[in-house]
Specification:
globular, 47 strands, alpha+beta, eight-stranded parallel sheet, 920 residues, Chondroitinase Ac, Chain A, domain 3, 28% strand, TIM Barrel, nine-stranded antiparallel sheet
Length: 920
């Protein structure tokens, strides 16, 4: 044992630093870490007799068939079944693209497997993709016909979908049908991705959405005998995934559009101005008056060395590419006796494609104050730079950004903006940025001045354009002598440079977007209810980055999406996933943040959640989110995704960055998640405090000017750790003062453990030693970095041993019996590191992307741990069994008794990730 530990420590040192990756690159990637063994969760059902005996099969928890108690409806913050009035929650998975259309034999196995794991709802997602007739494996990946015209449903694909739906329904698994996800509408010019946002105001696109909804929901399923519109097993219908006019505009989607869309948007914008101001000219006059009232004198210079003397002393040139893009040089002398001004930024000849560089300086700005930013520059050749103010550290939020055109004529560009929020502790910085989108051409930028002052006298106003030429409008500043003819139109506000426009104009623009989106949701909601007769729960889209609480709370339920370490695409095209465990996050990260979008009194869904692969800490995902979801009283949690394709269903190794169908650790934790969420093991105790943060609609609008659609209880004043202690909610209040109502009590951040009311959940994000524990009567868990500690969870003590990452997810749920240790059976899961056979990392230290995804079988770590159980009074025998890939008993695990306590040791010798504990 001592020799083994010594070998482990030596390996850990070698695997933990940059030196190892430089000296032993082949060693690091040639073989998996020591101690891994093959393990997958079986695709096919074991024989019936074995299934009946398997503790890992919780099919019996599902009330089959789905819909037998009538439609699901919303009552307060819960879903209930119409006939019984009983509450129902959903633990779901997403199927995407070809996975929605399996062959019949596979559909039967898929439905049975999901039921065994405790899944009781499937979100049918990405069925409508156009332009992707077949996936890489040659399987049909869309609901459209072979012509992929985006208008005609394919009978063969419908048959596959129908059969899968019937198989799911028979096993007690409901459906969440998504309408628009990834369809590009036929007959329209290219626009935003999947025509998002455009499809909320272009009439022809809305008509196509309605036709698809009718064709799909009025289609009769021959295997159930019902139209989808008439089937209570359809729990939810979602209208438009991850979409919203405000959200998509905030991302800059409509900044560059085909003239067709520009014309439609400008027509609607100017009609809105006429309704609300009398005419576009009257709106412009009102904005000018408001801007004059808000103007303030400019103060002293806020930047050090704003004239960039002495080779830009006090400034930092940062090249963020393997090969530098810019060099800093002194300016040429303008002539005898004339002092040169500024600097020269020279583009280097060997700079790589997509190279970037920034000239930086830290700044300090007053929140809520107007500021004036000015730059004077010229270039040898025309080029575009950006000038922005961002966080100095991750998450790199942008507070202001403007594009700066540089030409061969010296010019000064000046913009006024309002800095809207407090700087983070790490500070903010101003940066002049250049990015080469192609192999950079030779160029020299001569920058004479970059000035920043508090105050300003005039913000930019939208420009007048001829109404008949409105499709070619742009956001030039309006001149003082702009015509005011009723035949002239005002250009819409683009996202780029939005912060430089008059606050009054910005508010009107956001109101216009708000009302435009509201009109769309109202129209679609009434069409589905009135014209199609849909009685299922209706969801519009998602809160957060997409749509708005005041609009979505008009639906039956609210929805949100969240990911821990979502893949990010680098400049070289590589998609990386930061290999971090969430338990080290002091604020609870995505264990807490989704709670702050929930509206008081509405059912709340999280229809996409995952810890993206190849994160080696992924086993933590579902127990954590399910535990907090139950405590926060949510109504549904859906994994994104179970699978994107069908070839093959039993691959035996991890595929992609989202799919869990071949991720044994995530699959094994689903029954634990079902116990926590569906059974409600970590529901808050009676009388729990609900902290509701309330703001007025006007305050909501003001916050939109700062954060776009991302208005939540956090932006309104709540503290992130509130959700780790209490239930939280967000609400709008009609308050004519417009000042907003602050939360009654805001929790102060805590550096130590944070425990929920009732004591079931504890979040302890100690630096590099985070641990999350569950101590409910029927489920107990220790997830995180052991650091040699034992965790006493009231009747169960978990002492993890040394692992590859000093990290593990160990959880035990009593699946029969009223508490852990009572007579019955319990499922114990113990998970850690995972990778595929032959998997090769790009960087074996960072482990954030793979060069080769590898092959079957998946390799997992056997977690060593000492488990001490205190059985209930009257329990005389304790048995423990390791389980195989089917969940069948494999080997007996010795148990020792010391008085009432029963102790056993698990570990890699058992070559498993789950165990059965029997008390009788």
């Amino acid at each position: 044992m001592i020799a083994h530990r010594l070998l482990f420590l030596v390996c850990r040192v070698l695997f933990s630093g940059l030196v190892a990756s430089c000296i032993f690159p082949n060693l690091l990637n040639a073989a998996p870490p020591p101690g891994l063994f093959p393990f997958t969760i079986a695709w096919d059902s074991p024989p019936t007799a074995v299934t009946d005996a398997s503790v890992a099969d919780i099919t019996g928890w599902l009330d089959a068939p789905a819909g037998k108690h009538g439609y699901i409806r919303a009552e307060g913050s819960n879903f209930i079944t119409t006939d019984t009035g009983q509450r129902i929650r959903f633990l779901g998975v997403n199927l995407a693209f070809a996975a929605n259309f399996p062959e019949h034999a596979d559909a039967e196995k898929l439905a049975a497997r999901l039921a065994r794991l405790g899944v009781n709802c499937v979100r049918f997602h990405h069925m409508d993709r156009t332009g992707l007739l077949r996936n890489a494996a040659g399987r049909r990946a869309t609901i459209w016909n072979e012509d992929a015209d985006g208008q005609t449903l394919d009978p063969a694909q419908l048959d596959r979908l129908d059969y899968l739906f019937a198989q799911l329904k028979a096993r007690g698994i409901y459906a969440n049908i998504n309408l628009h996800v990834s369809r590009t509408y036929p007959g329209f010019p290219a626009g935003s991705r999947y025509h998002k946002a455009l499809d909320m105001f272009v009439p022809g696109m809305i008509a196509l959405q309605k036709q698809y909804a009718r064709d799909l929901l009025h289609h009769k399923n021959n295997y159930t005998g019902l139209r989808y519109a008439d089937d209570p097993a359809v729990a939810i219908v979602e209208i438009n995934n991850e979409n919203g006019v405000v959200g998509r505009w905030w991302r800059g989607n409509p900044d560059t559009l085909d003239p067709l869309y520009v014309g439609e948007l400008n027509t609607r914008w100017n009609a809105w101005l006429t309704r609300n101001h009398g005419s576009p000219a009257a709106a412009l006059a009102a904005w000018k008056n408001a801007d004059a009232t808000d103007a303030t004198p400019t103060g002293p210079e806020l930047l050090k060395n704003h004239r960039l003397a002495n080779l830009a002393k006090n400034w930092t040139l940062q090249n963020t590419s393997p090969s530098p893009l810019l060099a800093l040089e002194p300016p040429a002398s303008p002539g005898p006796g004339i002092e040169p001004r500024g600097i020269v930024l020279r583009v280097l000849p060997d700079a790589a494609k997509n190279a970037r560089a920034s000239l930086l300086q830290p700044v300090s700005l007053k929140p809520g104050a107007r500021h004036t930013l000015r730059i004077t520059l010229e270039a040898d050749s025309p080029a575009e730079l950006t000038l922005d103010i961002k966080d100095a550290r991750p998450p790199w939020r942008t507070h202001f950004s403007i594009k700066i055109p540089a030409t061969d004529t010296l010019r000064t560009v000046e913009n006024t903006f309002v800095y809207k929020e407090n700087a983070p502790a790490s500070g903010i910085r101003l940066a002049l940025n250049l990015r080469a989108t192609a192999s950079p051409a030779s160029n020299n930028f001569r920058v004479q001045e970059i000035s920043l002052r508090e105050g300003g006298s005039s913000a930019k106003l939208p420009a007048f354009v001829d109404a008949e030429n409105a499709n070619n409008s742009a956001n030039a500043a309006a001149s003082a002598a702009a015509p005011t003819s009723a035949h002239r139109a005002l250009a819409y506000l683009r996202r780029d440079g939005f912060e430089t426009f008059s606050p009054a104009a910005c508010d009107d623009w956001l109101r216009f977007l708000w009302e435009t989106e509201d009109d769309y949701w109202t129209d679609m909601r009434e069409y589905l209810r009135r014209d199609l007769g849909i009685r299922s729960i209706l969801v519009g889209s998602q809160l957060g980055a997409y749509s708005l609480l005041p609009l979505q709370q008009k639906f039956d339920a609210l929805d949100h999406h969240a990911y821990w370490q979502h893949p990010q695409t680098q400049d070289n095209g590589r998609r990386i996933v930061q290999n971090l465990s969430m338990v080290n996050e002091p604020g609870g990260a995505y264990a807490a943040s989704p709670a702050f979008y929930r509206a008081a009194g509405k059912p709340y869904l999280l229809t996409e959640y995952n810890h993206s692969s190849p994160n080696t800490f992924g086993a933590e995902a579902f127990p954590i989110i399910s535990a907090y979801g139950a405590f926060q009283d949510w109504s549904g949690i859906f994994v994104y995704s179970y699978a994107h394709g069908t070839a093959p269903w039993d691959a035996g190794y991890q595929r992609g960055q989202f799919d869990i169908d071949q991720h044994p650790l995530k699959l094994a934790t689903l029954p634990i998640a079902a116990a926590l969420f569906l059974r409600g093991d970590t529901d808050a105790p009676a009388g729990v405090t609900t902290k509701t943060t309330t703001i007025t609609p006007e305050e909501y609008l003001r916050q939109m000017r700062r954060v776009g659609p991302n208005v939540s209880a956090i932006t309104a004043g709540a503290t992130r750790t509130d959700a780790l202690r209490h239930r939280v909610a967000f609400a709008l209040a009609e308050n004519k003062s417009g000042a907003g109502v602050p939360p009654a009590t805001v929790a102060t951040p805590s550096a130590g453990p944070i425990t929920t009311e009732g004591g079931a959940l504890t979040w302890d994000a100690a630096p590099n030693a985070g641990i999350f524990t569950i101590r409910s009567p029927r489920t107990k868990a220790a997830i995180g970095f052991a650091c040699g500690r034992s965790f006493d969870l009231d009747g169960l003590v978990i002492t993890p041993g040394q692992t590859l990452q000093d990290w593990s997810t160990i959880a035990l749920s009593q699946l029969s019996g009223d508490r852990v240790g009572s007579p019955g059976r319990a499922l114990l899961v113990a998970c850690g590191y995972i990778e595929n056979t032959g998997q090769i990392w790009h960087d074996p230290v960072a482990k954030n992307s793979v060069k080769e995804s590898g092959r079957a079988p998946t390799l997992v770590e056997g977690i060593p741990a000492k488990i001490t159980l205190t059985p209930a009074s009257g329990v005389t025998a304790v048995e423990v069994w390791s389980l195989d890939e089917h969940g069948r008993r494999a080997r007996s695990v010795p148990v020792t008794r010391d008085g009432p306590a029963a102790t056993f040791h698990i570990g890699p010798d058992y070559r498993t990730i789950w165990y059965e504990v029997i008390t009788q």
